[in-house]
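Marked as duplicate of an earlier ticket. Keeping the data here for the record.
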Amino acid sequence: MNVLGIESSCDETSAAVLSEGILKSNLIASQDFHKKYGGVVPELSSRAHLQIIVPLVKDSLRKAQTDLREIDVVAATAGPGLIGALLVGLSFAKGLAFSAHKKFVPVNHIEGHIFSGFLMEKKPEFPYLCLVISGGHTLLLIVKSDTEIIKLGTTVDDAAGEAFDKVAKLLGLDYPGGPLIQKLAMKGNPKKIKFPVAQLKNPYDFSFSGLKTAVLRFKQKEYGVNEKIPESDLPDITASFQYAVVEALTQKVLKALHEFNVKSISVVGGVAANSSIRSSIEEIGNKFGKSVVIPDLQFCGDNAAMIAYRGMQLVKAGVNFPFNYNAFPSLKKSYLRFWKT
């Protein structure tokens, strides 16, 4: 099976070709111009997707040394994400598949992340505990098979990646904030400032809004409302914030490992690129004798390789989607198709 994957949920346009489960190409065009606005501007993102999607798909096919005639399935992200950005990739994929008489598969973006560990040489073993940490989502799941996912917990407010970006803005750092906080935190003392870790009714749910507010209150108390934080203080503040995020994530993972019998652990999503989170989860895996699979950095962020892989899984599972499939009203149902709480 040859699958062409297309991803356009936010500010990366990506196209990938998967042949018999082997990745042949995975091209990603990032929209760096959003930095000057302090965040992604949806309208500008949509326009950028429109400009790059055709040449990017052509380049991806060329790099994979194939052409559209040899493609069996066209898979594209159908959500969640920015509606305008999604429409560009999804509409293009639908039109391409229809005109070329190929099978079309709309893929849930989060499901793509969940199974992104299978793009690695060392793959997760079912059932596995999956921690999804991205800019818009934080989830803890048990993945029992290609078609059965049990949701243990989710975020009740800000996602982990959102918290990184918002705290970075509070501290006067540029966008995106995650990599900058990680870089500064390497020079700081993670226990210098005690920031809170939320405890919720559902012990597997996450909350980062209070942590963000705690950083704001600390800044106001120590430096005033409008004063700039001295650069010499930023390493300790960022290290302490990052430590609180890692604690919030690892507490849930530890609890789940005590309660459920899983064979491996997988951490996925854009925030899985954070070195402190990666090392903490690997340490937990060693302690419990569980293999840990964290995708390479190119597969942590938004990418079409994971969309192609998930599309392949759905086709093999016998899931069919008509061309008149209306992804957006039906997305919630699709997203929960195999999910249990």
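See parent ticket for discussion. The first strand starts at residue 2 and ends at 7.
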